[in-house]
Amino acid sequence: MRLTVVGCSGSAPGPSSPASCYLVEHEEFALLLDLGSGSFGALQGLIDPGRVDAVYLSHLHADHCLDAAPFIVWHRYSGRSDGRAVPLYAPVGADRRLAAAYDADGGPIDDVFDVTPVGPGSWSIGPFQVRTVRTAHPVECYAVRLTAGGRSLVYTGDTGPSDAVVELARGADVLLAEAAYPDVPDLPPGLHLTGRQAGEHAAAAGVGRLLVTHVPAWVDAEAQLADARSVFPAAELARHAAVHDI
C-alpha cells in the first residue's frame, strides 16, 4: 500500500499545501481520501485524474470535499475522461452538497460520481477492506481503516478525542491523525485533536507509525509534532507530496 499526501493543511488551504486529500494505491487501484479545497490542482501533478478509481469523503466540510467541483469540471470538459462514473463513498447528502457546490441549480452529478452513502460498517473498495466509525465532530464524519496486502492505514478524518477511533486504529501500521488544535486552554469539545491527543490516540491504539496532519496554517506544525512525540515518538508530520510506503 502506498500513501501520497496530496493536501494536508487543516481547515483551509495553506501556503505550502492544499486542504485534505490523500491518495492511497494498491495493486494499481487508486483511491482518494477526501478532496479538500485546492487539492485538485495538486492532484494533477501527482496522478492523471482519469486514473482515480474511487473517492471516499470523510465528511462534507469544505476543506474535505469542495474540490469535487473541479473534479466534475475535468471529467465533463477535459476530453480526457473515459466517461465512467467514479464510485464516491460519503455521508448521506453528499450528492446534493456536491451538486450545489458545482452549480447553484444543483443539477445531477451522476454522470461523474456514482454516490454511495456510508455510515459505520465494513465493506470493500477495490482491493481494500474498509471499516468506518463515526468520529467526534459536529457534522457526520467517519474515520476509515483500509486494509490490503496484510497492511493497514487508518485516517481519522476530523475528530475530537474518540474511543471509537482508537479501537478502529488498534494495531494499524499507520495512523493518519488530525491535530488541528494548539495546546491552549478552553478548547471547544468534540471538534479536533491537539498534537498531544493525536499521540495519545496512536499510543493507545498501538499503531506502528503516526502521521500528524490537518494542522492549520496559523498553528505551529512543529509544535504539534513535538507534542505528539512527547507521548508517541514514532510520529512525523504529513507534508504535501510526501510518499509513504505502508
How would you characterize the overall build of this protein?
The protein is α/β, with parallel strands linked by helices and 246 residues long. It has 7 helices and 14 strands. The chain has helices at residues 39-44, 62-65, 68-77, 94-102, 163-168, 195-205, 221-229; strands spanning 2-7, 21-26, 29-33, 54-56, 86-90, 113-117, 121-125, 128-134, 142-148, 151-155, 174-178, 209-213, 235-237, 243-245. The chain has a 7-stranded mixed beta sheet. β12 (209-213), α7 and β13 form a beta-alpha-beta unit. α3 (68-77) crosses α4. The chain is globular. The N and C termini lie close together (5 Å).
- Helix fraction? 10-25%
Uncertain stretches of 5 or more adjacent residues: none
Portion of residues in beta strands equals 25-35%
Instruction: Report how far the terminal alpha carbons are from each other.
Output: 5 Å
For the secondary structure, the number of strands is: 14
Radius of gyration: 17 Å
